[in-house]
Specification:
Largest sheet of chain A: 9 strands, antiparallel
Number of helices of chain A: 14
Distance between the termini of chain A: 42 Å
Number of strands of chain A: 16
Structural class of chain A: alpha+beta
Shape of chain A: globular
Oligomer: homodimer
Chain lengths: 524, 524
């Protein structure tokens, strides 16, 4: 099994109807806003742009009123910002009575690349069905076209595939009814004196906002799903921004509501046609149920939720400890047992050990509030795991932690074992210093991993460097024109995609929205 | 302006609300029948077939229950007969929970060629939007898919464009809810002792049935419109079969309800979004309003309709006579002023003269019933026009009528002037004999023109030859597997299309359904 896919379709799941009904009662209302295009644009190749493309404004939307479109004509509209919602327009005939259906094609893109590079050439391993397009045949004109699917875009390419020699088409009332469960009136206003950090904060907030739907989605283009790893980070940003804590609560009850027969929470859930737990189980994501619950309780002090969900959290602790070998180190395997980062070569053992210790500390926070008998046990386990790390994963010569049978040195291992507070402050500070001075070959591929890097920097008191790295990395996306932060960004490899094509990458992705958390929580 | 297109979008039309309300009151109910596939088939190249393709049964529909379809899989279902209606199926996931939308493509075909030859290579001049296809993205599975457009097909190709590595698709409950306003319980039963004629009769009836919708459509795949030339022939078949005479009445009132400012009826009407007269005006089609009304009155003796519509019919007579030159012959022109046949090289002058005389005789039938003062005038005009034909269009050396400045000899000219009863019986009989023995180079391209050929044969008493020609021509389509008769058929040129591609030809076309009229009316 390669990274990125598990198939366990014969598993049995347990449904907790009480938890599911609590979650259902917290279904948020969606706010709608009608957006209109701000411009008609052209997409132009430009090697200096990260994506290889840029847009140039070529006309005002009002110019469409005068324009008749014939077969083969196309135009690209720009809504001026990243948006999620339902697309519509009015299509009227011009000329003789329409003597054939009108065939329109719509292509939706978060980026100029999706407007420029044909979907027909997509060759990635994720389903091409994520590429957002629609072909519409209008038998009767004029017609108000309202596409039934929810799209995620800044740009829409509209192409007249065919009308007829007897009539052209006139388009008007082009709009996108955006949807989000984020209530902007509840957003804590904040203006950072540093213009770039201010912009990064705003882009973070829009990223979170566009991912806030009936659940915290990972990305509104793809996968549009509730993933635990994303949820944990979204919740952290939410406490500093929209404070819609009931949405976090809803998501926790959803994960607790459908578990594997042995009690393990899934890595992600589907909401339709019913709440369905995916059959992908990840060591780190399951443990993040504990961390997300602890963060939620810290933010809300919601005792009832803690009472309801503590047993589920504790079960994740138990299951994760089953993977610890007699030497106090997690058993490694070649399959996709933990996520950590999108990285084909990354060994997951040491970073997962870090996640385990980190989440046991989160569990101890909770145990202190509800199940104090377990505190001693947890402390003993945490110490035992930390000692095992120092004894077996620390390589004094390299000055780094190593992971797996091949003693791999990766950024992820250092970062997670720093977050797990292995070694004293001084040790961790020096380790981070080495990481900055002499980064291991196995680096970081996602904003998700970058989040933990920033978190680690702050944890050792290096906020100056944290600000610098945020400005460099997320600022790089802003400079590249991002309205929302991306699932993947490597300035040195702009084409990077773990899926085989950047066209299928998500350009509004929850795990990338955490600068607002750092900026606001730590007053960066 | 070439044959096949007129653009007169600045014309003003007159609406007669009384006529339109009578038409609206006669809107027929549609009968629905749920059809299920009879087989899964493969399409195989076969040069001995007219279309170059044949189908071979490869599985029973029930085998789909056991079959999981992955991206790239496709299947072709066969409904066993030509049908018109609404397509649906149930699509369920198999395997892990669906982690991506399912993208299905449906291609509908009246013929195996539409299953085999990619629409993307279509290069005809009619709008490609007539090629029947749909791309569907299913965000939530299982899903009951019901395509909103009406399709016309015997075969449906279903292609899984993408699912994902985690799930496949299972299809079930594939169906087509057929629609027609033809009431089969009112169909006069008839079994012809000659097996081929019996089959031709049945195929004719199915052709008419599938064209009977809210109006008499020309073809349910394309143009799906009320054309006067088709209506006239459909009405003739209807009187011998379904006898749904109110549908003929409705169509007459529709044509009378929206006329050009000067009173000319359009060649065709659109029904949606409202009754709209097309801006295509054809000399022959306008005159067929008179013929169709006369045939309707002959079949029904509906005096009220005659009283209502006589003025409209008479106006067509007046307008058509304006085109007659001082020499008693219609003025020719290079544009698409009369239809007669789909034939780029056909000169329309002489055949249109025949249509004019034919319809003046129909007008005289009506005048005798409602406006006897005009009978004398009409008789004088008919005689004058006939004399002019004999004086100016008859070429004694060639033994044929000639047409236009270049004195073209065509089948159409001879046929229409025979139907116009120019010359005595013996003259016409000998003319038809020469036509059979030594057919002019400018032949007949459509079943529509073939209808008039058969009609002319019968008019001179040559029913044996009529039967032979019906068996040869329409029997050829039956032998080629036709469930319904085609818009175009030339056994020597199977690829013939006036539109640039046989893919866009209609394979259930009203003007081709007249053998049932001849067989039943004349007891062939």
């Amino acid at each position: 099994m390669s990274q990125g896919i598990q198939k366990n379709s014969s598993l049995t799941f347990h449904r907790n109807n009480h938890f599911l009904s609590v979650a259902a009662s917290l279904l948020p209302a969606l706010q709608q806003t009608r957006l209109q295009p701000t411009a008609l644009v052209e997409v132009v190749a430009d090697a200096s742009e990260v994506s290889g493309w840029k847009t140039e404004k070529c006309a005002l939307p009002a110019s469409l009123m005068q324009r008749e479109l014939a077969a083969g004509d196309e135009l690209i509209i720009d809504f001026g910002t990243h948006c999620v919602g339902y697309f519509g327009l009015r299509c009227a005939p011009a000329g003789s009575p329409p003597d054939a259906p009108a065939h329109l094609q719509f292509i939706f893109g978060e980026t100029p690349a999706e407007m420029a590079e044909p979907f027909s050439e997509y060759n990635g391993w994720l389903s091409s069905s994520w590429l957002q397009q629609a072909d519409v045949y209008l038998d009767v004109l004029p017609e108000l076209v309202r596409l039934p699917r929810r799209y995620c875009c800044r740009f829409v390419k509209i192409k007249v595939i065919s009308a007829s020699a007897k009539f052209n088409l006139k388009l008007s009332d082009i709009h996108l009814n955006t949807v989000t469960s984020a209530d902007t009136t509840s957003l804590k206003p904040r203006h950072h004196p540093d213009a770039l950090l201010d912009q990064i904060d705003q882009v973070s907030v829009l990223t979170l906002r566009n991912c806030m739907q009936e659940v915290f989605e990972d990305g509104p283009k793809r996968d549009r799903r509730l993933w635990l790893g994303d949820l944990r980070l979204q919740a952290l940003v939410n406490y500093q921004t929209f404070e819609q804590n009931d949405l976090v609560k809803r998501c926790l009850y959803l994960f607790a509501g459908v578990t594997r027969e042995d009690g393990m929470v899934s890595s992600n859930l589907f909401m339709k046609p019913d709440v369905i737990a995916d059959d992908t189980f990840l060591f780190d994501y399951a443990l993040f149920f504990v961390a997300t619950l602890a963060d939620y309780i810290a933010a809300t002090n919601d005792q009832q939720t803690l009472e309801d969900l503590w047993a589920v959290a504790w079960r994740q602790v138990e299951l994760s400890l089953e993977r610890v070998g007699p030497n106090g180190i997690l058993q490694d395997s070649a399959d996709w047992w933990a996520f950590i980062d999108w990285h084909e070569s990354l060994n997951k053992q040491a970073p997962s050990q870090g996640v385990l210790i980190y989440c046991l500390m989160k569990a101890r926070e909770l145990a202190r509030k509800i199940d104090s008998e377990k505190v001693t046990l947890l402390t003993a386990k945490i110490d035992e795991l930390k000692s095992a790390v120092m004894e077996q994963l620390w390589d004094e010569n390299k000055g780094f932690f190593v992971s797996g049978a091949e003693q791999q040195v990766s950024c992820a291992s250092q970062i997670w074992l720093v977050l797990a507070e292995v070694g004293d402050n001084d040790f961790r500070s020096r380790l981070i210093g080495r990481l900055l001075a002499d980064p291991p070959e196995i680096g970081m591929n996602t904003p998700y991993m970058m989040h933990h890097f920033i978190d680690a920097l702050i944890s050792v008191g290096n906020t100056g460097c944290a600000v610098q790295e945020i400005k460099k990395y997320w600022g790089g996306m802003v400079r590249a024109g991002a309205d929302t932060f991306w699932e993947l960004y490597d300035p040195k490899r702009p084409e990077f995609s773990p899926y085989g094509s950047k066209l299928i990458n998500s350009y509004c992705h929850a795990w990338s929205c955490t600068p607002a958390y750092f900026i606001r929580k730590y007053g960066l």
